[in-house]
Amino acid sequence: QQIPEQKLKAFSIGTMGKRQPSKRELEEQRKKEQEKAAAQAFEEFVATFQEPANKTSKVWVKAGTYDAGKRQEDTKEKGKLYKPQSRIELPSEKNSAEKAQEYARLLGERMKPERPGKKKEKEKKKSNLELFKEELKMIQEEREERHKYKGAIRSSSEIDPEILKSSSLSLSDEKGSFDSGDPNTTNIYLGNINPKITEQQLMEVFGKYGPLASIKIMWPRSDEEKSRGRNCGFVAFMNRKDGDRAMKALNGKEVLGYEMKLGWGKGVPIPPFPIYIPPTLLSLTQPPPPSGLPFNAQPHPKDRNKVPRMRPNEPYPVNPEDADKVDKILPQALVKVVMPTDRN
Q1: The listed CATH number (3.30.160.270, 3.40.50.1010, 2.60.120.260, 3.30.70.330) that belongs to domain 157-279
Q2: CA-closest candidate to residue 336, choices 302, 306, 291
Q3: What is the DSSP string of 134-182?
Q4: Where does the record place Basic and acidic residues bias (predicted)?
Q5: 112-169 pLDDT, tens per residue?
């Protein structure tokens, strides 16, 4: 089928819309323009070094030489041309051009953008896990070094707690380590204790002076520690006053044939309830026996035999006579409040 002549004219006369250049094309065009401008500047820069040097120098006509000492004039070279010789060596065109090219090359390498891959490698940061591993490794190395030096000092001779307290080799991360002097600490360091003594025996020895917050014996682990023939430990009281009394009474005292050496240690957290209470104080903290009165009120000693018997689920006596007796006993009764011991 033939195309009409009118349509062919429309195609030949009509204009097609121009496509807008993409961002990539604009970027490439901009780079080409920059490279062209840099090349032109480089050519101009090199041309300044390649210009031929003006080797012609000034020439004078000699008029004679006058000797001031002899008061005579020498006219032998009068009228001759005098051309002074420069002592400064001018650099050759080749050396100047080479220097210019070297300078331009170094400048181009410095201004040349890095590859995207290399930039990513440089900007790649360590993950949090890698940083945490490095931190743990550093802490472990420091701990091993402190253990090594402290073990060497302890194995050399028997050390007084006061010496260890002032030593910078004490383990700061070990529970109960020696402190520089906290006035509120309740933790006491026990040195030179019998290796056969138990924590229960230490509870009975120190528990006489007040409730205990914690107690710990540092049992030997290696053969070298076992060969010393003595142990150490820590006893923490619930309050400082009880610790002061125990320190004054037990420091230097022999327990199972070993003279204990005491000193204040680093403070430890105090639990809400003690792990050991002296029997004399334990009776005061225990709830009283059931009395049969409301709220387990304790009757006056003279009214103990007058309390009527009531049923377990009966809060108040139903019998009028028993109710009258309870009403007379309650004004003299005492309700004792104790802290529950079955809570953590």
Answers
A1: 3.30.70.330
A2: 291
A3: HHHHHHHHHHHHHHHHHHHHHHHS---HHHHHH-TTS-TTSTT-B-S--
A4: 22-36, 70-80, 90-116
A5: 555 655 555 555 677 878 887 888 888 888 777 777 766 665 554 444 444 444 444 4
